[in-house]
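Q: Entry one of two.
A:
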Amino acid sequence: MDREERLEKIYDKALEMFVANGYDQTALSQIAKELGLTKAGLYHYFSSKEDLLFFVHERHMNRVFNPILEAAQKISDPEERIVYFIRNYTLKAMTRDASARVLVHETNNLKTENRQKITVLWRNGLDLIRNTLSEMEDQGKIEKINKNFAAFALLGMCSWTFYWFDYERQESGEELADTYVRVFLKGILKAS
């Protein structure tokens, strides 16, 4: 097995165990055992448990969050772009499984420089939303609004999902994504 294949197995197993048991309750020795490695063998790839957490978090962002951003950035119409982002962020990152809950919660366990790297990835999403809202305002599609607050509100609304979503009911993810789009873009009051 080459290095990348081994790292892929480590990523999968560590993420699975962090989700199932929590980061603090998952020892490196448990992860190593599940992978058929010694603890020293795991240290060959990662210098610490925090180093492993950062690897898992960064890889997860690069696999789940960044592709959503990259696809959204290619959409020229800002309304279509924001709808795409809300739907895909909700469906692919927040309702797929509990991994986002664990990783976001455990960000505080990262060293400052690693936490800052993860923050840059999240900021890319915030920038996409803020810039999209600016375009929509310039086109007269939305009222003048504080774009920072609105962008944080959108990310917060979608990101909070992992605290209450029932992952056993995947079929409700589509309705949830549609509801988020409606609430964010049109509100909940009937048109007068």
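Q: Entry two of two.
A:
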Amino acid sequence: MQYFSKEALDFLHEIRENNTKEWFEANRDRYERLILEPSRAFVTEMGEHLQALVPTINAVPKVNGSLFRIYRDIRFRKDKTPIKSRIGVIFWQGGGKRMQSSSFYMHFDPETVFFAVGIRGFSDETLQKYRAYIKEERHRESLHEVMEKLAKKGFHFPEPKYKRLPQGFDKAMTHPELAKYASMYAYKELPHPPEFFSEALCDYAYTLYEAMFPMQQWVYEMTLS
């Protein structure tokens, strides 16, 4: 079974060049055939794979579940183009909100595919929970160790958002720079490998998710604190 095709990437490129609701609605059948249905199939199969790591993983093959809306919310964005040319899927752990739960994530556009685990943007509530959690030295040490090991395997992390240490942290602490983050996840972004266009995509993604699993679990345990 092939989930995604080069034709799907061509379609996403066309969205960039014809980014209007009128064009998209005229081509909705192509979106459903090339993007939506393959995404649903991938979520179903990938969810079964991920149960080996997280038996209670949420893999919901529908929009506003593991799939994202194709229309962009432009109310508070500088970019006013209404249609997304980057397709994402998410598998989250636990009973919390999907975007504030530790998750396995993938998105792709015409140029690259991106795999990540963790939380890609903390809400105010999650940020406060994260800072409270890493005030304990053992949690800073364990996160630092996870990041060091994953970096050696070629994975990357978000850049710290804040320049100054927040209240309650100082330079005398071990790894105080961890308090400057507004998200915490590990990721790998790369040009589409051959597996992306074949039935081997789930196995390929699983290998990356399994390698990044220590970060996924660290973030999950933080959200439970």
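A: Comment on entry two: The chain has a mean pLDDT of 96. Helices lie at 6-17, 21-26, 28-50, 124-134, 137-152, 201-224.
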